[in-house]
Amino acid sequence: MSSTVIGQDGQDGQNNQDNQNNQPGEGGQKPPTSAGWPLWEVFVRSSRGLSHVHAGSLHAPDAEMAVRNARDLYTRRNEGVSLWVVRSTDITTSDPDAKDMMFESPQGKDYRHATYYKESEGVKHL
Amino acid sequence: MAEQKSSGGHLAAVRTPEDIEGERRFDAIIAEDSRIEPRDWMPEAYRKSLTRQMSQHAHSEIIGMQPEANWITRAPSLKRKAILMAKVQDEAGHGLYLYSATETLGTDRDTLNDQLLTGRAKYSSIFNYPARTWADMGAIGWLVDGAAIANQVPLCRASYGPYGRAMVRVCKEESFHQRQGFEILLELSRGSKAQKKMAQDAINRFYAPALMMFGPSDQDSPNSQQSMAWNIKRFSNDDLRQRFVGMIVEQVKVLGLSLPDPDLRYDEESGQWLHMELDWDEFKRVVSGGGPCNAQRLARRREAHENGAWVREAAAAYARKQQDQQDQQNQQDQTAEVA
């Protein structure tokens, strides 16, 4: 039994993109299931043009039912316009132990930000 | 608790280098008031303590549906029925958010459910009191949900990420519960003499149990100190109770009703609200199963679980059937392609 549910790992889904793109962390671990039903991660888009954000998890026998349950559980108050459900087991995440390796490189690279360039301050339309 | 994974195996006599490194990182995260996420190393005691607190919380939401569900058919208007149904639906939702968050600690749903149904798990003592009149829906909303909010708002900043995030959602919905309760009492207190009396009687019965919801006083609360050190709790039981009393003392004036507490006064010197002595023996008795409705609540929960079995089975059978049809379709498509 794993101690983790993979999809709960993101800060409100903000690093979901990272989760999907990165190397498998602790592959092969199955999240807990209930009555044989898989666990699903629910993502809600609050309005058109915004990204889907992780809302929470639920158990359901299949994807269609997961969407229905997600509607009942997470969108009773106009929370959004679109729902995604993803099987928790289908989300691959970066290994938390590899945090430094994965995310340290931007440090010391301030020149990647516009605010680094002071000489041009005051120049219009730049 | 069954099924607990010992993430680093540090309960074993020998501590591995991973445990030592994990603990160092855990301590650093707590020290900088950041969040622990499910895959992080955590001390076994932290995992256990959170599992206990979060599952008790989830169980309370699920059992808490009962006193109110009992009143849906007897609510005085269609609007009140709709509101009460929405509220009961919310409680179910809160339970589910919290169960999901608890599962990230490694105890699966069936185990949690089993702990509740077999009476091994505790839940909030307040839901073992009967809801006798319609006014009780008001008192429960205003006092019980009010106490819950006072307790839960700081939990939005709990150090365990999934718990804090679940609590944000819970708190948003909870304030609707408190306001609808307040409105019920307000309407009754502006009604006939008998209605006003009914509202006062409900407050009289729920006041002390609501104050007990914050748990024993600080010196008798076994887990409090450790929970605060881990940034799970942010304020002590007594501090939260104080804050709550200060709020309702003002609100009850708007209702034109009173709190049943002869000792209640603000002590300028200590800056504290002094309130009546709470009966902690009663609290212990009710929490551990001896309250007026404990047996009834658990029996009802078991019955609902058993009576709902066909829904779970039907959903699973439907999912299998859909899958079979999909497989068949895929096979046909493949055959067609080959041909």
From TrEMBL, chain B:
<dbReference type="InterPro" id="IPR052703">
    <property type="entry name" value="Aromatic_CoA_ox/epox"/>
</dbReference>
<dbReference type="InterPro" id="IPR007814">
    <property type="entry name" value="PaaA_PaaC"/>
</dbReference>
<feature type="region of interest" description="Disordered">
    <location>
        <begin position="317"/>
        <end position="339"/>
    </location>
</feature>
<dbReference type="InterPro" id="IPR012347">
    <property type="entry name" value="Ferritin-like"/>
</dbReference>
<dbReference type="GO" id="GO:0005829">
    <property type="term" value="C:cytosol"/>
</dbReference>
<dbReference type="GO" id="GO:0010124">
    <property type="term" value="P:phenylacetate catabolic process"/>
</dbReference>
<dbReference type="GO" id="GO:0097266">
    <property type="term" value="F:phenylacetyl-CoA 1,2-epoxidase activity"/>
</dbReference>
<dbReference type="Pfam" id="PF05138">
    <property type="entry name" value="PaaA_PaaC"/>
</dbReference>
<dbReference type="InterPro" id="IPR009078">
    <property type="entry name" value="Ferritin-like_SF"/>
</dbReference>
<protein>
    <submittedName>
        <fullName>Ring-1,2-phenylacetyl-CoA epoxidase subunit PaaA</fullName>
    </submittedName>
</protein>
<dbReference type="InterPro" id="IPR011881">
    <property type="entry name" value="PaaA"/>
</dbReference>
